[in-house]
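Sample A.
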Amino acid sequence: MKIFITGTAGFIGFSLAKDLLENNHTICGFDGITNYYDVKLKKNRNEILKKYNKFSFTRGMLENKNLLNRTIVKFKPEIIIHLAAQAGVRYSIDKPRTYLSSNIIGTYNLIEQAHKAKVKHLMIASSSSIYGANKKTPFSENDSVKLQMSIYASTKLATESIAHAYSNIWKTPTTVIRFFTVYGPWGRPDMAPFKFTKSILEGKKIDIYNKGNLYRDFTYIDDIVKGVSSLIKKIPNYKKNPSLNKIDSLSTVAPFRIINIGNSKKIKLLDFIKAFENSLGKKALRNYMPMQKGDVFMTLANTKLLKKITGFKPKTNYKEGVRKFVEWYLDYYKK
């Protein structure tokens, strides 16, 4: 298939594009390669993708709708997978306007072009942070989501709403995918696995928020990739109401569905840190801190809908995932 993917120089976009290329799909990547984190890492990811004959790339920002339009019109994709975004909960506290521009305006431009291109399926990345301060767990796609704790989460919810409205008006088949704390090789330097590994190796203290009393549904990158790729051909059709009734998030007025991809395991932050200590053979120096603004106490995914639709359920144990990340980190940085 011809698949247009935004964010291919990013962690998830790169990992997905590489997997799809290895399965003989034709991929056009689009990425701004911003300096939010190490540009060299982004360029290295991109260089790997450029080795594939069926990969083409355009460097640009989603806010540049003319460039985005030209690229999509020229490529003529069957599928669009939108993974590019300004990421990071904590950074959104300091730079909220960046999130409004990239995540809302940029995503709107992409949705508009997907409609004009008449793609078979538009897939949009969202986040578990949307569930915010919800107390009921595990988080299900049909849960009420009114308690966002960060600007990042709010922008993601806004794009979900815009996508639904567009799907309703223009009947663009759309799947929104809520990712739960993704980690693994080629991950982002602003995330915990990178920070923990680097600080432990250098003998520096790691910041542990809420004194370690936090829980996350850590989801390994290979499970995310398999989950997304398994959904590509699962196109929402609200006119053919499936017998999923109680758990399905399929809209009643649009070909639009929301799906969680998470490991469905509640991992305590302190246990996650211990996995890094074990993999590195070195104890972490700990700096216990209060709860960070914008943070949530826990995330935990209900993935029954993903399993029902695709037959797939993420299952990588966090200890195995941490070991693989550490192996990649040591090799990449020649430690």
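Sample B.
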Amino acid sequence: MKSPRRRFPRPWRIEEGPAALVVVDANGQKLAYVYFESEPGLRSAAKLLSYDEARRIVVNIAKLPELLRS
């Protein structure tokens, strides 16, 4: 049985948590989490992203609806 097609209405926005940036649709559905670590020592030991790296990724994810529309 095929499940119904889900919609994720625009605009998608970015919310910031203590250790993750989250992409959220207009209905509040959380679509993607990108985790980061601010402390360089912990970041390199755990191989986590910096805040700036995580931010670049979520910004591009949040742009997807507009990119796919054109």
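B remarks: Residues 10 and 65 are 7 Å apart (CA to CA). DSSP finds three helices and three strands in the chain.
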